[in-house]
Task: structure prediction
Amino acid sequence: MMRIVKKAETNELMISIDGRLDVNTMHQLEEKLEYLDGIKKVTFDFEKLEYISSSGLAILLKYK
Result:
């Protein structure tokens, strides 16, 4: 299970991820990252991330 919290301020976005980012949950993050119009900076908070698989890393790199 994974929980995603988004906080937006002007043209910056903070995304906090809690739980596991893997092949079963990566689509949840991908949906949150689809519409970034006007966002110039995205910061990720992985403090509560328990695990990330190569599939999870691939989603992050896709939106780099």
About this structure: Strands lie at 2-9, 12-21, 41-45, 49-52. Residues 54-62 form the longest helix (9 residues). The CA atoms of residues 22 and 30 lie 12 Å apart.
